């Protein structure tokens, strides 16, 4: 992988006392991040997802490394705002600090559909579910930062944001399935642009928390393997020489979560590995779009 050299065994410093929450921590990049972070002795790691059996497997992997870090599963379906609310409340009832929130979970190039709350399924899962989780956990994150801790939010985006529709994010019809040409990928790209833009707006509004978005690279995880044949072929045909395994694919988010704070620029987007991108287009840098997305998100989450 190009960019900075990185070895999680030697380049992640001691994490003693830290509390970490990883969405989608039961498989793929989230599971790999959990195992690697647990080697450095954080107090507790919480992993969310929909599959308790997969969570048990990750918890066993951590134990097998000899780590004494407590790893706990919190059930959370990002496509259900009620589920996200319950998950956040579960964590808040158990913790008095939160040092690292890694928004790792996501879906990719899915057929048309809606979340349980009636939003386009990729946007509702990748952006809106995470946004509610963030909003619920922000007071705890701020409390931890104000006590002097180095608090991070790492939000997984993707270089696929570049395929976003004209205007960036089609906010007016997100309660439809958005029947577009090449729609599965454009809807995915729209959600990944939202991840990038929302991270920048969070950094602007909450400067005491270091918030960055990252591209993990092209990684051979379930996101790719679970695609239909045509979309899986498209990914392999266009990115075969760039594809890496989950162990290496998790490096960029691990780097962003643990590198010395002075090596990060708050609100920015990093490509693998640790490379501050200079490739954002005008839409990705549009502060008016960030404000519109913020306002739309706040309204969508009203009542939760």
From TrEMBL:
UniProt keyword annotation of Oxidoreductase present: yes
Molecular function via GO: oxidoreductase activity
Pfam families in alphabetical order: adh_short (PF00106)
NADP listed as a keyword: yes
SUPFAM superfamilies (UniProt xref): NAD(P)-binding Rossmann-fold domains
Listed InterPro entries: NAD(P)-bd_dom_sf, SDR_fam
Keywords in alphabetical order: NADP, Oxidoreductase
Similarity-based family: Belongs to the short-chain dehydrogenases/reductases (SDR) family.
Protein known as: Retinol dehydrogenase 11
Organism this protein belongs to: Aspergillus avenaceus
């Amino acid at each position: 992988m190009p960019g900075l050299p990185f070895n999680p065994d030697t380049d992640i410093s001691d994490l003693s006392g830290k509390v970490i929450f990883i969405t989608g921590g039961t498989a793929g990049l989230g599971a790999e991040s959990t195992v690697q972070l647990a080697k450095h002795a954080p107090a507790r790691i919480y992993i969310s997802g929909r599959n308790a059996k997969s969570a048990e497997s990750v918890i066993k992997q951590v134990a097998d490394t000899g780590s004494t870090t407590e790893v706990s599963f919190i059930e959370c379906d990002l496509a259900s705002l009620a589920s996200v609310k319950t998950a956040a409340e579960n964590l808040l009832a158990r913790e008095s600090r939160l040092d690292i929130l890694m928004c790792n979970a996501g879906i990719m190039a899915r057929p048309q559909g809606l979340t349980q709350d009636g939003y386009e399924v990729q946007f509702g899962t990748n952006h809106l579910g995470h946004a509610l989780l963030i909003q619920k956990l922000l007071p705890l994150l701020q409390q931890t930062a104000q006590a002097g801790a180095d608090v991070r939010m790492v939000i997984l985006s993707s270089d696929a944001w570049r395929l976003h529709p004209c205007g960036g994010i089609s906010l007016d019809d997100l309660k439809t399935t958005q029947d577009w040409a090449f729609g599965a990928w454009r809807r995915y790209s729209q959600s990944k642009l939202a991840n990038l833009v929302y991270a920048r707006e969070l950094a602007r509004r909450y400067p005491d928390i270091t918030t960055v978005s990252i591209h993990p690279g092209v990684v051979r995880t379930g996101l790719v393997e679970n695609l239909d044949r045509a979309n899986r072929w498209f990914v392999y045909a266009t990115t075969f020489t760039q594809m890496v395994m989950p162990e290496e694919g998790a490096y960029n988010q691990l780097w962003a979560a643990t590198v010395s704070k002075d090596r990060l620029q708050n609100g920015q987007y990093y490509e693998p590995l640790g490379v501050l991108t200079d490739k954002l287009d005008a839409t990705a840098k549009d502060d008016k779009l960030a404000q519109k997305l913020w306002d739309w998100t706040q309204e969508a989450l009203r009542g939760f």
